[in-house]
């Protein structure tokens, strides 16, 4: 399992996952969509206890929840998850199964000006940003 991809998927969800309560769940479903939120909750239900059992991992998860686009926070949580998953073969197996299920239908655009494509865009031009121009400038 690619822990970096798991982090990319979970980063925009962590603030909601760590903030338990009905209002947080409703806001998460509104912002992320029901399918993404359902996958994130299932992954976190299995992964969360392992994270909470490791103080460094719990702190890294809170840091990433506060700053989901921070590359340093992502790297620290990825390192902590690799250690937790590596130490628990059952956790690794369960996460792989849940991740495979999430990958069949869930797509997350994480980060400023991210792009999600529902199909093949090879040969196409994708432009994000302010006042970008495609083609020749005069």
Question: Can you describe this structure in just a few lines?
Answer:
The chain is an all-alpha fold and 138 residues long. It contains six helices and no strands. The chain starts with a helix and ends in a 35-residue tail after the last helix.
Give the topology.
Layout: H1 3-18, H2 22-32, H3 34-52, H4 55-66, H5 71-86, H6 89-103
Helix pairs in contact: 1-2, 1-3, 1-4, 1-5, 2-3, 3-6, 4-5
Largest sheet: none
Mean pLDDT: 80
Order of helices and strands: HHHHHH
Percent range of helical residues: 55-70%
Rounded to the nearest angstrom, the distance between the terminal CA atoms is 48 Å
The structural domain count equals 1
Radius of gyration: 17 Å
Backbone structural class: mainly alpha
The number of helical elements comes to 6
How many extended strands? Answer: 0
Strand content: under 5%
Principal-axes geometry comes out as: globular
Low-confidence runs: none
Q: Can you walk through the features of this model?
A:
The chain is mainly alpha-helical and 138 residues long. It has one domain. The protein contains 6 helices and no strands. The radius of gyration is 17 Å and the shape is globular. It starts with a helix and ends in a 35-residue tail after the last helix.
Please give a handful of descriptors for the protein shown.
mainly alpha, 0% strand, globular
């Amino acid at each position: 399992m690619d822990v970096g991809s798991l982090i990319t998927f979970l980063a925009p969800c962590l603030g909601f996952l760590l903030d338990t309560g009905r209002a947080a769940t409703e806001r998460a479903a509104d912002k992320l969509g029901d399918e993404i939120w359902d996958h994130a909750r299932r992954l976190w239900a299995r992964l969360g206890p392992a994270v909470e059992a490791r103080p460094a991992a719990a702190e890294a998860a809170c840091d990433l929840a506060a700053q989901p686009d921070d590359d340093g926070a992502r790297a620290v949580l990825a390192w902590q998850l690799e250690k937790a998953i590596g130490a628990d073969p059952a956790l690794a197996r369960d996460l792989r199964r849940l991740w495979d299920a999430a990958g069949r239908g869930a797509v997350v655009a994480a980060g400023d000006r991210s792009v999600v494509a529902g199909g093949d865009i090879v040969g196409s031009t994708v432009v994000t940003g302010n006042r970008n121009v495609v083609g020749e400038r005069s």
